[in-house]
């Protein structure tokens, strides 16, 4: 059997649509409440319903967003898209993944926190450097103090021994 894309689109080998409209219904349970979402596409346009009540596209999308369903994300990969995605640069693929996973919404906050972390790390390095310098200065001051004490002790001994050296 030789299956063609147009046959998949129209549902038959005649090349004509088998129906005048197409609809998709999603039933989901949220907070112990069963909700029904329907989208119908016909020649005259699209129709959106929530719990059998017709709503605008914006209300429909907003209700799905509240449930954590983001229809902007491309969960379906259309014919030819695989090659397009495969030819993208790694940066473009990361950007696509961020859009699909909705992490791009947190990117500004992440960058701000990252900058704060870098500043804190720089501040920490500076504090450690100051601490090291202070410890070095302290050791040097202790050594100078000990040297001054030795000098004073030797000077005191010299003063005490000087009369005996001068008058034997």
Automatic annotation (TrEMBL):
It comes from the Eukaryota. Keywords: Cell cycle, Cell division, Mitosis, Nucleus. The keyword Secreted does not apply. One of its GO terms (biological process) is sister chromatid cohesion. GO terms for cellular component: cohesin complex; nucleus. The keyword Nucleus applies. GO terms for molecular function: DNA binding. SUPFAM superfamilies: P-loop containing nucleoside triphosphate hydrolases. This is RecF/RecN/SMC N-terminal domain-containing protein. It comes from Parascaris univalens.
């Amino acid at each position: 059997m030789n299956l063609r894309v147009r046959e998949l689109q129209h549902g038959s080998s005649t090349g004509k649509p088998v129906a005048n409209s197409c609809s998709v219904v999603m039933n989901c349970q949220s907070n112990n409440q069963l909700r029904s979402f329907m989208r119908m596409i016909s020649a005259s346009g699209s129709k959106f319903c929530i719990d059998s009540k017709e709503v605008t596209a914006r209300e429909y999308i907003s209700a799905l967003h509240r449930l954590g369903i983001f229809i902007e994300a491309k969960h379906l990969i259309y014919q030819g898209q695989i090659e397009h995605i495969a030819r993208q640069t790694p940066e473009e693929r990361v950007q696509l993944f961020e859009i699909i996973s909705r992490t791009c919404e947190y990117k500004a906050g992440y960058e701000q926190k990252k900058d704060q972390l870098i500043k804190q790390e720089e501040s920490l390095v500076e504090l450690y450097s100051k601490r090291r310098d202070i410890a070095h200065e302290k050791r040097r001051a202790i050594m100078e103090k000990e040297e001054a004490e030795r000098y004073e002790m030797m000077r005191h001994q010299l003063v005490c021994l000087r009369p005996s050296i001068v008058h034997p």
